[in-house]
User: Which sequence fits this backbone?
């Protein structure tokens, strides 16, 4: 069953076509990673799906509920943690999560139980302090906790780890995995961290100039733009290396350069050991043996013509 469905979804701002007839399907229980350059239409699309912005044309539904005609019902099924979270600095973290729970009709005992369940995500030492004293990372985690208090079927996350330090980012990743694996929650994740999409997402979509240019499982997308390459560097003997590699099964072609030999294969991880064993048996001393595989950044570059601007080193 598809919990997120969009058909011809379009949004214009004057003469600017921000989202251009997007068709989208996200299956129940999937984590969908959504990538795109700045200004490509990511946030506009997410806001339409979350009922925060009306489409110019097209239609969309969440859990079978129409975002145009049933926005109230849609909001009961979704949790939303947007990048520009509005948290009252004069409330405590506990007050914010409790208020959110009450707005969704939860009883006090249910709210207490949910707070206990969300404790790994929340900094409990700061939970009763004013939000105005929180760091940016603490605010992000609190906003995520508030969006989860009513246990939604679909969770929309817009740059959930932006500005977090590595331990904070890993904590959010662990919580997203838990929500997805243990509770079956469907997650729509926009991110500028390619590692985040590659690690968490079952499927990835890349939007460019308002249209989804490519989508699919990360492994398939990476495979679509090129094969793996096993790189061998030796002190000479390139002709002998190429001859040995050319006789191995699974090696599609061998390329020789001034300082290295490259074996192109579709399954680089499986080829490393046979390559090393074959060269050792041939008595060829290897200075360096490395595996190069396509990355999501290569896919992004192939689709958009530029690298994704992010905070990653």
Assistant:
């Amino acid at each position: 069953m598809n919990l997120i469905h969009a058909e011809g979804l379009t949004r214009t701002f004057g003469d600017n076509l921000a989202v251009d007839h997007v068709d989208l399907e996200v299956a129940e229980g999937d984590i969908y990673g959504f990538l795109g350059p700045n200004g490509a239409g990511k946030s506009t699309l997410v806001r339409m799906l979350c009922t925060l912005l009306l489409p110019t044309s097209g239609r969309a539904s969440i859990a079978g509920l129409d975002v145009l005609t049933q926005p109230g019902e849609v909001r009961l099924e979704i949790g939303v943690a947007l990048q520009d979270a509005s948290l009252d600095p004069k409330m405590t973290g506990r007050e914010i999560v409790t208020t959110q729970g009450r707005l969704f009709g939860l009883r006090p005992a249910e709210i207490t139980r949910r707070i206990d369940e969300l404790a790994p995500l929340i900094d409990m030492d700061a939970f009763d302090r004013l939000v105005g004293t929180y760091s940016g990372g603490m605010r992000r985690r609190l906003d995520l906790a508030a969006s989860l208090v009513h246990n939604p079927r679909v969770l929309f996350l817009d740059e959930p780890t932006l500005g977090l330090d590595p331990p904070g980012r890993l904590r959010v990743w662990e919580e997203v995995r838990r929500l997805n694996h243990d509770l079956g929650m469907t997650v729509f994740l926009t991110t500028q961290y390619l590692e985040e999409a590659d690690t968490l997402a079952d499927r990835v979509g890349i939007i460019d100039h308002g249209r989804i240019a490519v989508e699919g499982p990360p492994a398939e997308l990476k495979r679509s733009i090129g094969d793996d390459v096993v790189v061998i560097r030796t002190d000479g003997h390139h002709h002998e290396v190429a001859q040995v590699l050319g006789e191995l099964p699974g090696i599609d072609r061998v390329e020789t350069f001034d300082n290295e030999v490259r074996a192109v294969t579709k399954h680089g991880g499986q080829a490393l050991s046979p390559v090393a064993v074959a060269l050792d048996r041939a008595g060829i001393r290897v200075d360096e043996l490395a595996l190069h595989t396509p990355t999501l950044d290569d896919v992004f570059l192939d689709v958009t013509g530029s690298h994704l601007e992010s905070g990653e080193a």
